[in-house]
Design brief:
474 residues, alpha/beta, two-stranded parallel ribbon, globular, 20% strand, Endonuclease, Chain A, 15-stranded mixed β-sheet, 3 domains
Length: 474
């Protein structure tokens, strides 16, 4: 009995010490590291209420280890070839010159002229072009996709990659550790059997790696021979083949890019690959000399919970602030943070025509509920919210004043704007902007009204508001 009494007393004393030491340590760390006031206050409060459990949760989910590691990689790795592209730097003119200057300083990437862009709607049109590019690859293929299914579409890509490897092409494939299968990733096994390097981003089943489970690589990049780039919102899966009459079709928009800006796409992939594997990609097979392929000024913008934190959102906010006539947004998920919501509603209040096109029903019903809870302030400010008809459209498009376009992988929700690793492309070309604006306008089927919100029952409004609080984890 004396032994157990001594143990209990020791545990009691230990808990008394931890009861103060742990929350004090978390408070000091959060005050030094957390810029978000709400997050800082929340973590401190949780740790003082439940010192042990709160501290464990803070260690797992409250510390951004990714940002620290990414900055180390930026310091250690020098991506070759940038100096050769200086002749293609472009100085934007007019109202958007302010935006170009800001994004140049923010991203540390120059605006590049001499590019061409082709819009590819849906997998029916995009996949054949992408597969044809791989079919003619001579030196390298790098591919990053959030979802890479092992279905008939995925198998077509695997088959072309295997044939490219047999020709001596150097290949690297990066898929997300959750989006392409957490417990089972069929496409990784198929590629590895063929001897093709394929890795899963932020994937681990070990408990000490759990802090990274909520951070996902949502980028979609394909680059062939370092010259032919593809990016946008399109994943690799049979659901994107609309003409095949699949059960749950997904429409989407992808982009084929050529010109000096492809170097920036290649560098974005190289950073992700180095971050995941430790291998640094270099040499002419991945970074060849590039020549002009058109006359469009473009720039890649990346964001993620690393050294690129919130850069895509900052670009969007600045573009909306500079808008004089119109802002068009098309997104599959629309639950932006308070900062984005404020800038968008202020634009509408000063007379800018703000149109937001969202699907009537997306492929995530919980996100739809959360979205519906945030619509009233936009309607009050005069924003026009349009519910697009089926099929569900996964495109992420932004057009400002029919002059500037911003396209890529970023959804307008908290996860994409802050937690995911995303990639967008800004295009300073009036023809592209007008074509994308016309496409967005063609999807405006039914306008949401205050009456639509008011007629929802109270229980549905409470459900929607509660789910909105969980947006970073949906």
């Amino acid at each position: 009995m004396n032994h157990w009494t001594t143990v209990r007393e020791w545990l009691s004393h230990a808990y008394s010490v931890l009861r103060w030491v742990l929350p004090i340590a978390v408070t000091v760390h959060a005050l030094r590291r957390k810029q978000d006031t709400a997050a800082c206050t929340g973590w401190i409060g949780v740790c003082w209420i439940a010192p042990v459990i709160g501290t464990v949760l803070y260690l797992m989910f409250g510390i951004n280890r990714v940002q620290r590691r990414a900055r180390k990689l930026v310091d250690e790795h020098a991506w070759s070839g940038r100096e050769t592209l200086g002749q293609y730097r472009h100085a934007a003119q007019g109202n958007m010159a302010h935006l170009a200057r800001m994004l140049g300083r923010l991203t540390e990437r120059p605006l590049m002229r001499g590019n061409s862009l082709q819009v590819l709607h849906d997998g029916d049109y995009a996949y054949p072009v992408m597969l044809e590019a791989i079919r003619h690859a001579q030196s390298s293929v790098v591919l990053c996709s959030y979802i890479f299914r092992n279905d008939r579409v995925g198998q077509d890509f695997v088959a072309e990659l295997v044939r490219a490897k047999a020709r001596g092409v150097s290949i690297r494939v990066l898929v997300d550790g959750i989006g392409s299968g957490y417990f089972r990733c069929g496409v990784k096994r198929a590629l590895r059997r063929a001897g093709i390097p394929c890795r899963r981003f932020m994937h681990s089943v070990w408990p000490w790696r759990m802090p990274f489970i909520n951070l996902r690589n949502h980028r979609k990049i394909l680059i062939v021979d370092g010259r032919y780039g593809f990016m946008g919102g399109l994943n690799i899966g049979a659901e994107n083949l609309l003409k095949s009459k699949v059960k749950s079709p997904v429409a989407d928009t992808h982009f084929a890019v050529q010109g000096p800006v492809v170097r920036q796409l290649a560098e974005a992939f190289a950073r992700d690959w180095s971050f995941t594997t430790g291998e640094e990609l270099h040499g002419a097979i991945f970074f060849p000399q590039l020549t002009p392929q058109g006359d469009m000024p473009m720039r890649v913008v990346t964001s993620g919970p690393d050294a690129d934190l919130e850069k895509i959102e900052y670009g969007m906010l600045q573009a909306i602030t500079l808008a004089r006539h119109s802002v068009r947004l098309m997104t599959p998920y629309f639950v932006p943070d308070d900062r984005f919501s404020t800038v968008l509603t202020l634009a509408a209040l000063r007379g800018v025509h703000v149109d937001v096109v969202v699907p009537s029903s997306s492929n995530h019903v919980l996100i739809d509920y959360a979205r519906d809870a945030s619509m009233r302030p936009f309607l009050d400010a005069g924003c026009r919210i349009w519910m697009a008809a089926p099929p569900f459209n996964h495109s992420k498009l932004m057009v400002v004043d029919d002059e500037w376009s911003f396209v890529g992988s970023t959804n307008l929700d908290v996860r994409s704007l802050r937690l995911n690793f995303e990639i967008n492309l800004e295009v300073y070309d009036t023809a592209v902007a007008q074509d994308l604006a016309a496409f967005i306008d063609s999807r405006t089927r039914r306008r949401l009204t205050h009456h639509d919100l008011d007629r929802r029952p109270l229980w549905a409004q409470l459900r929607n508001s509660a789910l909105r609080l969980l947006m970073p984890y949906l």
